[in-house]
Amino acid sequence: MSVDSGNPSSQLPIKTGRLIVITGQSGAGKTTLVDTLLALHPHFVRPITCTTRSARDGEVTGVHYHFLTPNEFAQLVSEDYFLETAAVYGQNYGSPKTPVLQALAEGRDVLLVVDVQGAQQIMNCSETLIREALILFFVGAAEHVLRHRIIKRAAEKGKQVDCNDLQRRLAESEAEWQFARRCEYVVVNNRDGDAALASTYQQFREAVLHLLPNPETHRGQSGD
């Protein structure tokens, strides 16, 4: 196992970075849009998170995730290693605390893509620097569109849709929408296709840059 370790300095400079938390409904395009923003604005940092799920084809530990055993993950939880954790579809996910605080201390803005469980933990964190994170919620689609996406994904994987699982995910989507009302900004992605992706990305980009204290510091890095 190879993960970041150590304690961040308690002496943070006056001008620190800002934590930006991306959360929301499944299938809302969070990861795709964050990857696009990172490519255009390299100032942002996205720490590598940990998970107990197995690596998929093409995924490399230490690049896409830190892949851990359940025992390794539990040990790190007991050591207060994570900023937030979430249990998703029987697997655990967590964001290491140290690299986030170190990047913020260096004046770099940090992007975290987390489950709503993790976003709630960050919102209720006792540390001011973390609790004051900017939280953006991605709304994926109306119920009928979400249902279609779930069925489509299952078909692409050669699987049949579990009706109980479908109803559970739709119920989770409704609960997540209630949390969205507490977030600073809501990004809507309710269509498929390249044009919809471009429109949603523009919403996302404007929201992120607008919410930062000095958005002008990020201009000129994307070729605008």
What features would you describe in this structure?
The chain is α/β, with parallel strands linked by helices and 224 residues long. The chain has one domain: P-loop containing nucleotide triphosphate hydrolases (Rossmann fold, 3-Layer(aba) Sandwich), CATH 3.40.50. Helices cover 41% and strands 17% of the residues. The strands form two sheets. Strands 6-1-7-8 form a four-stranded parallel sheet, with helices on both faces. Strands 3-2-5-4 form a four-stranded mixed sheet. Strand 4 and strand 5 form a beta hairpin. The protein is globular, with a radius of gyration of 18 Å.
Ends distance: 41 Å
Shape summary: globular
Mean pLDDT over the full residue set? 79
**SS elements, strand count:** 8
Radius of gyration over C-alpha positions, nearest whole angstrom: 18 Å
Q: Which architecture per CATH?
A: 3-Layer(aba) Sandwich
* Structural class label: alpha/beta
Biggest beta-sheet profile:
4 strands, parallel
Provide the low-confidence segments as ranges.
215-224
